Structures are given as structure tokens and as C-alpha cells.
Amino acid sequence: MGGLLDGKIALVTGVSNDGQIGQSVARVFAHHGAGVGIAARSQKNLEARAKELEAAGAKVLALQGDLTDETQVGQVVERMVAHYGRIHILVNLAGGLTRYKAAVDHSLDDWTAEIHNNLLTAFLCSRAVFPHMRDKGGGCIVNFSRAGRPQANMVAYNCAKAAIEALTQTLALEGRDAKIRVNAVAPGLVDTASNLAAMKPKDLTKWATREDIARAVLFLASDAANGITGQTLTVAGWGI
């Protein structure tokens, strides 16, 4: 192991199910020398992902918590700092599309759940690490937006991801004097296990791979991206 993140400590949220982007990001980070903390709701899935990373020789800490809950987010960050002593990088990957229906069919619970999973998680985790990064001389946050125009039947998800753009730019402005870089990655169609199961595509040639996304996150999290903040990097494969 060794590489672009030697000596860095990274917290990656949403590392739960097999075949998802978070799994690939954590693996790439560990391969490039980072000590990694992975956070998600499911203890069983977290342990499975942690074992995979440890088998590859990575330093990893599994942190179970509901990242829509302010108290639990604080506890996740406190445990991370207690274990590693520092957080250099936060990747806000928790969330995903869970409500697919027309806007008029979205209940208030549908709306709230989608906004909480995709926007509130990023806000709470960023807010929790911000003072720590500021006091330690800087850091890096990578959020997840989406590529392309909004699509029908995804109103709450679309709105949450649009708000991620504003969150990214606002935090970049507020973090620049403290040397906290804040950027976002906007994937297009990606070959995640859930996408493949739901969409059953016959042709993947225009899709981005999970590894494509992970390498983009690696770039933004590394010193190679010093001087880049408040930006969104679209990674849409050959689909755009």
C-alpha cells in the first residue's frame, strides 16, 4: 500500500452494501495509504466491508450510526477522532434514491426521508468535522451531487441533490480561510449493484464504473487538488 493519501485519515459515510460506490471509495483510499473510518446504519454490512478492507491490509474503523441523527453523527466523529487523532478527509456518500414516484404522489414522509438521507446527512457530518478541521489546520470534504438535468418521478431526490451544490459552495466559502476545501462529485449512471438490479441494462459502455467515481474522489481528496474548492466534478462516463 501507499500513495496519494499516505498519512491521511478519511471518514467515508454510506459504506454499507456490497457493490456500491462507498465500498470502492474506501478501498481506493486504503490502497493509497489512508487510515479509513467507514460509517453507515447497518452494523452487519459495516463489519463485512471492514473485513474486506482489513484483508487487503488496510487500517479501518467501522462506525455504526444513523447519520440523520445529530447526536449519533457527533458520536461517530468523536469515535473517529479518539481512534485516529485526526480527520483530514470527509466523504459524504450516505443517501441514495429510495422514493421513485410522481411528485403528486410523494407523501410528506417520502419527501422528508429523501431530503434527510441525501442532504441532512451531508450537512450534519460536515458541520461536525468543520471545527476539528479548522483547529487542525485544514481538511477536505467531498460531497455527492448528480449529473445531468432533473428526471421525472424523483422530485425529493432532485431537490436534495440540487441543494448539495449550494451546500458545497457555501462551505467552500466559509472554509477557505481555514484551508478547508469543499468540492462535489456528480456521477451519471454508475454500475452499482443496485442500479444494475433495478435497471437491468443491456449496454454498459456509456456508464461510469464505481472505480471511475472512486478515482475522481481520490483526486479531489488528495494534495493534487490543492487550490480547487467550491467545484463540482461531473463523472458521467461516456453518457454526456
Q: Could you write a compact summary of the structure shown?
A:
The chain has 240 residues and is an alpha/beta fold. The protein has 7 helices and 7 strands, in the order βαβαβαβαβαβααβ.
Note down, in words, how this protein is organized.
It is a single chain. The longest helix is centred in the middle third of the chain and has 28 residues. With 240 residues, the chain is α/β, with parallel strands linked by helices. Strand 5, helix 5 and strand 6 form a beta-alpha-beta unit. The radius of gyration is 17 Å and the shape is globular. The chain has a single domain, classed as Rossmann fold (3-Layer(aba) Sandwich), CATH 3.40.50.720. The protein has a 7-stranded parallel beta sheet, with helices on both faces.
- The fraction of residues in strands falls at 15-25%
- How far the N terminus sits from the C terminus, by CA atoms, comes to 34 Å
| CATH T-level topology | Rossmann fold
Strand segment tally: 7
Structural class estimated from helices and strands: alpha/beta
**What's the domain count?**
1
Oligomeric assembly = single chain
What is the helix fraction of residues, given as a range? 40-55%
Lay out the secondary structure.
Layout: E1 9-13, H1 21-31, E2 35-40, H2 43-55, E3 60-64, H3 70-84, E4 89-91, H4 108-135, E5 139-144, H5 155-175, E6 180-187, H6 193-199, H7 210-221, E7 232-235
Parallel strand pairs: 1-2, 1-4, 2-3, 4-5, 5-6, 6-7
Helix pairs in contact: 1-7, 3-4, 4-5
